[in-house]
Design brief:
Strand order of the largest sheet: 3-2-1-4
Number of strands: 13
Order of helices and strands: EEEEEEHHEEHEHEEHEEHH
Shape: elongated
Distance between the termini: 63 Å
Bound molecules: zinc ion
Largest sheet: 4 strands, antiparallel
Number of helices: 7
Strand content: 15-25%
Length: 281
């Protein structure tokens, strides 16, 4: 991310007069506890510690089914969770579905670690972490919301992940227009790694994200082929609605008894080919 900063245009929301434009002039990579960026503003008197700055980017727009916005990460996940809850709260027997919003995700999901460590969450909870995750050619934007089986660091709870895959397969059989993906998204690490590590049953649902963390053409920049340019983040509107649907359907079926479909198919195969295991002598 470092090459993207110096020269980048930002807007600072000050506590008095509104928005001030500025450009980042320097970066101190080894400052603690955070890297330090310097930008010059015209009215320093109105700037106070805690004021927020963000990249100066065009207002959000929808073009060809894609939302281009200054930030989709983690807003899209939070919006999808709230939209799903709006539907779920009107459904019978789903009174135990809730949303936990945690802070400091970009610093390494510190709020989620605290929630796991403080036992804020009941031990028998099933945790579906929501993310936007860097899109790759094999997990593209627009091919449906993603059941994320793991991240850069670990694989998630197999019981929960496999159960959601079964629910989604059944849902797609009944609704052939619905598309979803089952992928490992190695672009970063997410809360499910932390929750699984603290003994919770957890997995992740996510949206493929373009211009991840506002970085345009990460691979081109890393290869030295083009200058680092800040750009709006991108998600697919259909993927977003798919994620809301995935959440609602998953919550509806997660409580029902698991069907032994996989075991039955394995046993059938064993019966059919068992003789191949017998000694040939
Ligand atoms: Zn992020």
């Amino acid at each position: 991310m470092d090459p993207y900063f110096v020269g980048g245009r930002i807007e600072v929301f000050d506590s008095y007069s509104g928005v001030q434009n500025a450009r980042i002039q320097s970066l101190q990579v080894d400052a603690e506890p955070f890297k330090r960026f310097t930008a010059t503003v015209r009215r320093t008197a109105s700037i106070a510690p805690g004021d927020i700055a963000r990249w100066r980017l065009p207002a959000p727009t929808v073009k060809n089914g894609l939302l281009h916005a200054p930030a989709c990460d983690d807003l899209a996940g939070a919006a999808a969770a709230l939209s799903a809850l709006d539907t779920i709260r009107r459904m019978p027997r789903l009174g135990n579905v809730g949303i936990l919003l945690t802070k400091a995700e970009e610093i390494g999901f510190v709020g989620a670690i605290a929630a796991a460590s403080n036992k804020t969450i009941p031990k028998n909870a099933r945790l579906l972490c929501l993310e936007t995750s860097r899109a790759f050619p094999e997990s593209p934007i627009g091919a449906g919301p993603i059941l994320r089986v793991g991240d850069k660091t670990s694989v998630f709870g197999p019981e929960l992940t496999n159960r959601i895959a079964e629910i989604m397969q059944a849902h797609t059989r009944d609704n052939p227009r619905f598309s979803w993906q089952r992928k490992l998204m190695p672009g970063g690490t997410c809360e499910a790694t932390a929750f699984c590590n603290y003994g919770y049953l957890s997995t992740c649902l996510c949206l493929a994200l373009g211009n991840y963390h506002n970085m345009h053409d990460i691979d081109g920049v890393a290869a030295g082929k083009r200058p680092a340019k800040i750009a709006p983040e991108v998600i697919s509107i259909d993927d977003y609605h798919g994620l809301v649907e995935m959440l609602v359907v998953t919550c509806q079926h997660l409580g029902s008894a698991t069907s032994p479909v996989m075991r039955r198919s394995l046993e059938k195969r064993l019966r059919k080919f068992e003789r191949l295991l017998q000694s040939s002598s």
